[in-house]
Amino acid sequence: MIQINQIFTISNFISFFRLLLAIPLWILLDKIHSGDIRYYAFALCLFAAGTDILDGYLARKFKQVTEFGKIIDPFADKVAIGVIIIKLYLMNEIPTYYFLMILGRDLIIFLGGILLSMKIGKVLPSNALGKFTVIIIGIVILLIILQVNRNESLFLSFYLLSIILIIVSLIAYSIRAFEFIKKKNYESV
């Protein structure tokens, strides 16, 4: 059960702030083809990524890792990435399959995480593979925002790696969830 004092921590406020950054990101991406707006959107994405690093660091430093923080942090990440991906898709900047892969992965992990936490009674933190996947997807997004040539090897390498990681991380999360469910069921026998 999440207690009220677990909600009001500095790291959770930073995560909530990152969640709110989705609004200016959406607005900036609307005007991405106007002047230097592309660079402001790029900078805001980097700033949001920085808040993700900062909230985790502060939670560990001040021993404020909470069940609520394990929910709000990845939720803020998924909303921020989701807003950007939806906007880029609507602007025809990313193909439909890539859009569906990213949103599908995040939706499955998010809903699966809710079901898993109801089943085992706690929220599992993100794992290294999931974090690495989000970093690579983020790099692809940043390259798209900067309008890097999509036929260059730099873009293609990150793009293909992101597709592989989307699939592998979803499989890994599924295996991890089933292991925790099996462990919980075994302990209750």
3D architecture notes:
The structure is a single chain. The model has no long low-confidence stretch (mean pLDDT 91). 80% of the residues lie in helices and 0% in strands. The chain is mostly helical and 189 residues long. The chain has helices at 4-7, 10-20, 22-30, 37-61, 67-90, 96-120, 128-145, 153-187. The chain has one domain (4-187): CDP-alcohol phosphotransferase transmembrane (TM) domain (Four Helix Bundle (Hemerythrin (Met), subunit A), Up-down Bundle). The two termini are 23 Å apart. It is built from 8 helices and no strands. α3 (22-30) runs parallel beside α5 and α5 (67-90) runs antiparallel to α6. The longest helix has 35 residues, at 153-187.
Summarize this structure briefly.
By secondary structure, the protein is an all-alpha fold. The chain has helices at 4-7, 10-20, 22-30, 37-61, 67-90, 96-120, 128-145, 153-187.
CATH class: Mainly Alpha
Major sheet characteristics = none
Average pLDDT, rounded to a whole number, is 91
Q: What is the N-to-C order of secondary-structure elements (H for helix, E for strand)?
A: HHHHHHHH
Helix content: over 70%
- What overall geometry do the principal axes of the alpha carbons give? globular
CATH fold-type name: Four Helix Bundle (Hemerythrin (Met), subunit A)
Q: Topology, please?
A:
Layout: H1 4-7, H2 10-20, H3 22-30, H4 37-61, H5 67-90, H6 96-120, H7 128-145, H8 153-187
Helix pairs in contact: 2-4, 2-5, 3-4, 3-5, 4-5, 5-6, 6-8, 7-8
What labels would you give this structure?
189 residues, mainly alpha, Four Helix Bundle (Hemerythrin (Met), subunit A), 0% strand
